[in-house]
Amino acid sequence: xxxxxxxxxxxxxxxxxxxxxxxxxxxxxxxxxxxxxxxxxxxxxxxxxxxxxxxxxxxxxxxxxxxxxxxxxxxxxxxxxxxxxxxxxxxxxxxxxxxxxxxxxxxxxxxxxxxxxxxxxxxxxxxxxxxxxxxxxxxxxxxxxxxxxxxxxxxxxxxxxxxxxxxxxxxxxxxxxxxxxxxxxxxxxxxxxxxxxxxxxxxxxxxxxxxxxxxxxxxxxxxxxxxxxxxxxxxxxxxxxxxxxxxxxx
Amino acid sequence: xxxxxxxxxxxxxxxxxxxxxxxxxxxxxxxxxxxxxxxxxxxxxxxxxxxxxxxxxxxxxxxxxxxxxxxxxxxxxxxxxxxxxxxxxxxxxxxxxxxxxxxxxxxxxxxxxxxxxxxxxxxxxxxxxxxxxxxxxxxxxxxxxxxxxxxxxxxxxxxxxxxxxxxxxxxxxxxxxxxxxxxxxxxxxxxxxxxxxxxxxxxxxxxxxxxxxxxxxxxxxxxxxxxxxxxxxxxxxxxxxxxxxxxxxx
DNA sequence: TGAGTGCAGTATGTATACAGAAAACGCGGA
DNA sequence: TCCGCGTTTTCTGTATACATACTGCACTCA
Lengths: 250, 250
Hints:
Two copies of one chain form a homodimer.
Chain A: H1 3-9, H2 12-25, E1 34-35, H3 37-44, H4 48-61, E2 64-66, E3 72-74, H5 79-103, H6 107-125, H7 131-151, H8 155-166, H9 176-179, H10 185-204, H11 208-232
Antiparallel strand pairs in A: 1-3, 2-3
Chain A binds a DNA duplex (30 and 30 nucleotides) through helix 4.
């Protein structure tokens, strides 16, 4: 589908949602700033009805906050909020891994996960790793996590994981690109990939506690990446999510 | 505020949301049933704009499901979904308790929780427990859980806990009333109250792992209640949430 | 007889007009 | 100069009209 087709086929609501999200994540709308419907109409070019729907959607996506007297403002996050959200995701993914392990998954449903694991191995093996490989890693990593979550076979859980991961700084791949600029980059990637390997092994052997613990620790890698990237102040431009911080680090 | 004042002051959107939620939870709208906007307009008496907003809100509350081609249907849950949601809540509350324990809370902020604990003790001490006491327990229990979650001092976490607990069958007090009809009622209440005591103790002593484990187990009490109530088929009318089950037990 | 097509009815998506409430602004007085 | 109050403007909440997409049914043709 060409871009023009997309523009034609996608609903005005979705279009407004995308445009507004982009404005927020790029920092053109500052945290704490009130965003009026009329202003949103100007930005997006669609009428108030779909704009309003988009605002509601962005609210429960977590990017906006409702003002008691009506209207919305851009939500402001602290560094602690971000770290907590990562821990939260890790906890949920840990639960998913434990469910998968305890309930047992057939060899067939484990197959796609193992293929994904092998693909990731291919990418990680390079030294040094190209930027393209990093980019491919991000895609494949997201796929791995999605497959893993599905193995829990728990719709309510998957729903919550998706919700938490929708926050731009809490997704499994949020800081991989930023990490690419770090000297420890390759090392961190190798460790992360080992986590992947271990969790698959644990699920296969029905070791629920192990699977859970590893996925929790896995998420803490993202937390470490974030802290490293902020401290080193290297390539902060690779961390668009930081535009949401109450007091910007830059 | 009198009921008429509420009707006057509350927005049409909220009114529609309440009316529709009531229809769903009472089973007058069946799981899987499509619910058109026009139908919702008839039910609620407000116009399409607020009705549509209410439908969107109910969707991310988890009671409705979006149909790909447009519109919404009442979501259907399996017994497994319900049990998973309870485990999910337990996991999140466990994380909250661990945060509280690890980060440390001052004696002053622990005070309201301890008062709440004492109040619950008063209620539980009765034997046999009156229906009024059960009802009071539900209220006080909800307060205890809310206070506990706040001790985590983590806005993202509290947000998710509130969201999960909004599901009518996943809240901490969902099955307490049903439990009141069980012969094991008093016993179960005493055990639950002991969990409460232990988690406060663990937080006070900064025992994060213990606090987390206890809150997880605490949620499993709700799961046991649910299973008992369903098996015994006693007072299923006290379990309005069962109207959401794909294949009703009754 | 079965499958496909066209039409009617109905649903949702969108734009816009209007009313009421909140906020911003300026003016006057202490 | 600062505070309070009234006015004006702007914003949100709501209703409704219109356009478009979808669904279901009947009819036709192979």
